[in-house]
């Protein structure tokens, strides 16, 4: 029954079609048995390969599923050099074909996202407890780096709310940004450096699958919880409270709000509420009519300009309204000398960098792929990891903190007609002009407007429709979402994320250790065998129990599967006894979905065969995968199954074994 070719071979040299028959009476059975024996195909081993070849193939599938080196085959050395440049620097892919028409579109989109990025940069820096100017610095250097290394045409790079919140929370728990501002700034830049190193390493080593442990369910709950915490934190600015908690849990934040009612400023409340209403209205208008995307894009900068003019003109009458104050003019100062590589807080910087690095990487790649799918082009995940990583490493040395692709800015960039990453260059140029000449204009910008901008930006992260879909589709995913959501709200941002990741890993372990199994029946008139529970038209085959296992058999689930197999047999015998059906003679294990097996799994199959043999039941394997077949063969297990113990399909097993019973009286 076992061959050494990876091709299906036929006994007799020609292939004939065979049909499965459901026997309902002895005469029917005897008539069928008088027919010629059915055709049986060989079950073949995969091609013989060495251990090194197997290891090489496996590593290739793990780390190079997209076969990135195929493009270099059969090319001249010069062509390989050019392809190498294009591989590491995507700018060499699009730059030779760039023209004036593309530039016109990119200039419009670049100026549009700049109008959003400048106020958001200042606001998100405040969210991370950093000086506002750092937010503008982070909107200048990183987009330039990404324009050279990035593969997404529409990703708009800069500070983002989630990474800013996490950095501010994790660093603020151990270092006070008011009492130790220099140390806090050093740790922020160092965390950014570690985030970049981690991100670039994932890309270079092609370990992008690490971020897949942040499932969509985890992110939906995490972002919703973070959005609520961020919004509540902005009540400090919207209400004019001076003494406010530094904690990020919902209870301390609300407690701080209502314990400090004596510090509420009606002037600040009126100004903040008015502009918050303006921003939310602009967002609603753009959501209803995609052609009016520019309304929500221009609203933040418009709000900054108007609020600044109001405070400047009425500064004597609005003494309670706090403003940003002085912002230094000039380019990003170097900060490599501020990186903190020794001392008691090094572990904090490393931990913060890894967490913010994973979150920003997940968001950036997800956003890039989203808009790439809309324009039908490919975004290289590993290339994006390297681009974002090197971008943050360079940023940490030029007074920037963690940056990535922002969904809100990228959506504006896409709708504004961006064609290439030149829009990021235009964004950087606009920020450069702002840094050199326009910084004094922000002196009277009220802090309350920054809070309103942040609330408007993060409110879109609350995706209740996605949560409802999780409830309908997968209850465990919904539980993961809730774990992340409530963990962030009531415990802390990093612990809430860790809890959700833990629940996701538990789900994976649950699927591995308790895989699905099913009893199969034949769909009349076909060779198809499907679950008796799912398909009402499927029928049991007399004297056969056909069981399918829908997962690899590993040490983690082998004991469970052995117990479940014996339970299937016991339940089948009880059903036969209750319905006076034919005696059970054969158990067939459908191995179609068993994609892998280890030594524990092989031992389990041997144990099941011995148990069934003692009960005079035949145990048969059907359609093992190539690597499973190879391991069964190498372990010499197949010898104990005999000639009629291994088949290419369930249909052939049923037909051939039924034919071998023709000399026996019908049960």
From TrEMBL:
<feature type="transmembrane region" description="Helical">
    <location>
        <begin position="184"/>
        <end position="205"/>
    </location>
</feature>
<keyword id="KW-0472">Membrane</keyword>
<feature type="transmembrane region" description="Helical">
    <location>
        <begin position="264"/>
        <end position="280"/>
    </location>
</feature>
<feature type="transmembrane region" description="Helical">
    <location>
        <begin position="478"/>
        <end position="506"/>
    </location>
</feature>
<feature type="transmembrane region" description="Helical">
    <location>
        <begin position="217"/>
        <end position="244"/>
    </location>
</feature>
<keyword id="KW-0812">Transmembrane</keyword>
<feature type="domain" description="STAS">
    <location>
        <begin position="534"/>
        <end position="657"/>
    </location>
</feature>
<feature type="transmembrane region" description="Helical">
    <location>
        <begin position="155"/>
        <end position="172"/>
    </location>
</feature>
<dbReference type="Pfam" id="PF00916">
    <property type="entry name" value="Sulfate_transp"/>
</dbReference>
<dbReference type="InterPro" id="IPR018045">
    <property type="entry name" value="S04_transporter_CS"/>
</dbReference>
<dbReference type="InterPro" id="IPR002645">
    <property type="entry name" value="STAS_dom"/>
</dbReference>
<dbReference type="InterPro" id="IPR036513">
    <property type="entry name" value="STAS_dom_sf"/>
</dbReference>
<dbReference type="GO" id="GO:0008271">
    <property type="term" value="F:secondary active sulfate transmembrane transporter activity"/>
</dbReference>
<dbReference type="InterPro" id="IPR001902">
    <property type="entry name" value="SLC26A/SulP_fam"/>
</dbReference>
<feature type="transmembrane region" description="Helical">
    <location>
        <begin position="292"/>
        <end position="312"/>
    </location>
</feature>
<protein>
    <submittedName>
        <fullName>Sulfate transporter 3.4</fullName>
    </submittedName>
</protein>
<dbReference type="GO" id="GO:0016020">
    <property type="term" value="C:membrane"/>
</dbReference>
<feature type="transmembrane region" description="Helical">
    <location>
        <begin position="421"/>
        <end position="442"/>
    </location>
</feature>
<feature type="transmembrane region" description="Helical">
    <location>
        <begin position="77"/>
        <end position="95"/>
    </location>
</feature>
<feature type="transmembrane region" description="Helical">
    <location>
        <begin position="339"/>
        <end position="361"/>
    </location>
</feature>
<dbReference type="InterPro" id="IPR011547">
    <property type="entry name" value="SLC26A/SulP_dom"/>
</dbReference>
<feature type="transmembrane region" description="Helical">
    <location>
        <begin position="448"/>
        <end position="466"/>
    </location>
</feature>
<dbReference type="Pfam" id="PF01740">
    <property type="entry name" value="STAS"/>
</dbReference>
<keyword id="KW-1133">Transmembrane helix</keyword>
<keyword id="KW-0813">Transport</keyword>
<feature type="transmembrane region" description="Helical">
    <location>
        <begin position="130"/>
        <end position="148"/>
    </location>
</feature>
């Amino acid at each position: 029954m076992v061959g050494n070719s990876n091709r299906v071979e036929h006994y007799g040299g020609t292939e004939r079609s065979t049909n499965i028959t459901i026997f309902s009476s002895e005469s029917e059975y005897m008539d069928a048995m008088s027919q010629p024996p059915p055709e049986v195909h060989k079950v073949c081993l995969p091609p013989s390969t060495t251990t090194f070849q197997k290891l090489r193939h496996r590593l290739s599938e793990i780390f190079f599923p997209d076969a990135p080196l195929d493009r270099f085959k059969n090319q001249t050395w010069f062509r390989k050099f050019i392809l190498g440049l294009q591989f590491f620097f995507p700018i060499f892919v699009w730059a030779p074909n760039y023209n004036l028409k593309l530039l016109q579109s990119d200039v419009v989109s670049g100026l549009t996202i700049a109008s959003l990025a400048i106020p958001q940069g200042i606001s998100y820096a405040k969210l991370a407890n950093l000086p506002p100017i750092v937010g503008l610095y982070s909107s200048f250097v990183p987009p330039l780096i990404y324009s050279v290394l990035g593969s997404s045409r529409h990703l708009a790079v800069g500070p983002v709310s989630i990474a800013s919140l996490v950095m501010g929370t994790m660093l603020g728990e151990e270092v006070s940004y008011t009492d130790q501002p220099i140390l806090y700034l050093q740790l922020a830049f160092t965390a950014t450096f570690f985030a970049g190193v981690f991100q670039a390493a994932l890309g270079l080593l092609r370990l992008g699958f690490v971020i897949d442990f942040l499932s969509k369910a985890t992110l939906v709950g995490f972002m919703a919880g973070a959005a609520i915490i961020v919004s509540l934190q902005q009540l400090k600015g919207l209400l004019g409270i001076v003494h406010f908690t530094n904690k990020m849990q919902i209870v301390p934040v609300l407690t701080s709000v209502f314990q400090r009612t004596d510090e509420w400023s009606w002037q600040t409340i009126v100004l903040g509420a008015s502009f918050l209403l303006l921003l939310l209205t602009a967002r609603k208008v753009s959501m209803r009519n995609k052609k009016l995307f520019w309304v929500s894009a221009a609203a933040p900068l418009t709000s900054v300009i108007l609020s600044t003019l109001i405070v400047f003109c009425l500064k004597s009458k609005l003494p309670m309204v706090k403003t940003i104050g002085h912002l230094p003019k000039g380019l990003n100062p170097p900060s490599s000398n501020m990186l903190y590589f020794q001392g008691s807080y090094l572990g904090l910087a490393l931990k913060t960098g890894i967490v913010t690095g994973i979150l920003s990487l997940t968001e950036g790649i997800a956003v890039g792929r989203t808009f790439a799918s809309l324009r039908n082009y490919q975004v290289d995940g590993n290339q994006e990891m390297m681009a974002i990583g090197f971008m943050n490493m360079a940023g940490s040395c030029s007074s920037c903190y963690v940056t990535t692709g922002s969904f809100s800015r990228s959506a504006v960039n896409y709708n504004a007609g961006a064609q290439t990453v030149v829009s990021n260059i235009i964004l950087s140029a606009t920020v450069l002009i702002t840094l050199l000449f326009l910084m004094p204009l922000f002196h009277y910008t009220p802090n309350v407007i920054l809070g309103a901008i942040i609330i408007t930006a993060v409110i879109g992260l609350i995706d209740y429709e996605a949560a409802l879909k999780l409830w309908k589709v997968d209850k465990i995913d919904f539980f993961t979402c809730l774990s992340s959501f409530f963990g962030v709200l009531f415990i802390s941002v990093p612990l809430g994320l860790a809890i959700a990741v833990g629940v996701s890993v538990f789900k994976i372990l649950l699927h591995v250790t308790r895989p699905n199994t099913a009893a199969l029946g034949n769909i009349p008139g076909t060779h198809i065998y499907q679950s008796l529970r799912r398909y009402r038209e499927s029928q049991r085959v007399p004297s056969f129990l056909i069981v399918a296992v829908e997962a690899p058999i590993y040490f983690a689930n082998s004991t469970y599967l052995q117990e479940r197999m014996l339970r299937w047999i016991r339940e089948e015998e009880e059903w036969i006894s209750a319905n006076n059906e034919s005696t059970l003679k054969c158990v067939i294990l459908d191995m179609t979905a068993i994609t892998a097996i280890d030594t524990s799994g092989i031992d389990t199959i041997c144990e099941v065969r011995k148990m069934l043999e003692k009960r005079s039941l035949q145990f048969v394997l059907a359609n093992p995968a190539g690597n499973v077949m190879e391991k069964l063969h190498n372990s010499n297990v197949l010898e104990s199954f005999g000639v009629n113990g291994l088949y290419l399909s369930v249909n052939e097993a049923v037909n051939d074994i039924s034919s071998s019973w023709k000399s026996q009286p019908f049960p």
